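Submission sheet (multi-component)
Chains listed below:
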Amino acid sequence: MIRWAIPGLVVAACVGYLIYTASGGSAEYYLTVSELPSHTGSGDVRVAGIVQDDVLKTDGGLHVTFTEKDATAAVPVDYTGTLPDIFKPGITVVAEGRLGKDGVFHARTLLAKCPSRFSTTTYTQ
Amino acid sequence: MILGFLGAGALLAALVMGAFSMVLSFWAGWRQSGVMVQVGRRAFYAAAAMMIVAGAVLEWALLSHDFSLVYVTEHTDLSTPIVLVAAGFYGGQEGSLLYWAMVLGVLGSASLVASASLGLRLAAYAAGVMAAIVTFFLVVLVMVASPFDLLSLTPPDGLGLNPVLRDGGMLIHPPVVLAGFASFAIPFSFAAAALLAGRPDTAWIAHTRRFALIAWSLQTTGLVLGMWWAYHVLGWGGYWGWDPVENVAFMPWLATTAYLHSSQVQESRGRLRTWNFSLVIVAFLLVVFGTFIVRSGVVPSVHTFAISAIGPWFLAFLFICIVFSAVLLAVRSSHLGGAAQPIAPVSREGAFVLQNLLLVGVVVVVLWGTVLPLTSGMFGQQRVVGASYYERAAGPLFVAILALMAAGPLLPWRRAAGVPSRRALIWPAATLVVVLALMLIAGVRSIPALVALPLVAAVAATCVTQYARLLRGWSRLPALLVRKRRRYGAYLAHLGLAVLVTGIGASHFWQQEMDVTLVPGQQVTVAGYTLTYVGTEQRQLDDHTELVGLMRFGDARLEPARATYAGLGGQSLTRVAINTTPLADVYVVLAGAGDGGSASFRVFVNPLVSWIWAGGAIIILGVLLGNLGERAPAVEAVRRRVAASVPS
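Outcome: structure written.
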């Protein structure tokens, strides 16, 4: 067993190193809209918020701008690409990208959080 | 209304029988009472039967549109096609938990029937542990997540199934994944029972391996079907997103893959006993942990699973399972012992050990990435990792595993100092060099691709040489194939994995995508594939309308569409159009329609994706061929021993 302690440690060290370097490079901050302005780090972030009514689709639906808002703050979002199926005003989206100098959040990807259909809604009395 | 009472009654009866079976079985094992073992086991069968009754009642309620049940109202409506109404059984939280418990009841009963020969105490404890797990699920089903809750007013129609789930894949993917998840409890029960009974011999391995293999096969099928479903239904051009929901299904699969290999070391060399127990236990703990984080909503996921009240229950259950397993292993591992022959680093068993360490490494990487939002949230700002983290951290480990797959099967047991092994390595090594050279000539400059794909080719070459060796003594071929079917089944499974990984590699490294807006008659060319846009049309179907963007691709017509479900607040759904050619899939998503008949599309060209599905099928074929009717010699030996030592 002692002989295997060394390869074991080597593999463990490799795994630790891989996790460290990989997560250092690609871990993104998960923020709410109000936390966005005060966030100083570089790199992409993910911002969760609710889509407002000002959704504007152009280019046959491939380009969209809208305002993402949480309880206290709002940010305009600009996104190019196919939209999630359930995208519409009122749903929660997670935009991945970065805040530009123009104050607009340029999203690289847009994920929709499905309004859960598994949980019990108002139907139970 | 009456169905709700019937179902709830059946669940309650199952709970009573489950708890009874648990208490009786543990007591029987402790007192070594043969009669009580029988009674405990039959109580388990009764619990399973009552769960089947509950399941049948729920299905009946769904099919008869009994909207007095909350569950039926929330997951189906009158316009949903009837097959999908039936699938609503596992389409929601409560129903999926019932389905899970039911599968555990049925598979558990089967494993108990087969365990009668393992010895009284082991069989009794196994029944006890299994009954405890079933009882937990039934408590949750009865107390917090009952599918039989009633509405005070019966609505005229239900809310309907999520459109994303209204697909043929819904009929097979969730039941297989859930069955896979449920089945990990069986190897765990036998592991815990063997530790409790203090009988950790090869009989346990043979029995546990069989059920671990069933769990593994179900999970493999479930994972591949999940990828297939994501690819064909979700319309983002990929099949695996490293989402927590996918990760938690992947981790127990990895642990069980490790176990299926390391158990061979115990079978043939009597080594790694504690390690094998740990792997089986960890696989089950990962299942419980995964269920907890996915269904409690503690980590952000895009999946539609609910955030619900069952979270704390699963957390408590996870805690109990961890403590129970840890104490059991700590107390009993000193009894496990094992022959003191050392394992040579360069040998078959050495390769297995290294492969195990690497697989556990992948589990750690995936686990870390999955729980990072939780752990980082505790110490400051919440952070998340995306696909690039997993590719960079797990990729090198996967590459090392591929290298082992190429070399490991050619190494002899005990030691590999002799010449034969070096000669055997010639073919995979040559294949590796040839493929590498071909890729360099073809202009491939991506380092990960240049490392991974030649290795995959070497893996395939290793499997093929094993079969080629068989052909040399072709007169004995049929007999040898049957006698050593487990080995040749395993090589077929390896070959299937090589095919699957080729598909993943090719589509990962060389996927192309393009966003275009076209007017009728206009063409677009992506990666050499030319599509012609014909025009849009509106279609009215049973429960939805579709906007179809017609495309011509050679002689084929592609019909990417956006469906709109009026009954669900106008929720829309992408219908992807895929044309599979031998080398690549042309994958078209309709983004929307513009002025003057123009339409916008996202076009993907995904190389060799069909190899992924083919590879998955080959893996399952290999497992089936290798294990149908298999009876390990160890079982026979133990049967005689048990018959001699235990009065029945």
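Remark: Residues 115-125 of chain A have pLDDT under 50 and may be disordered.
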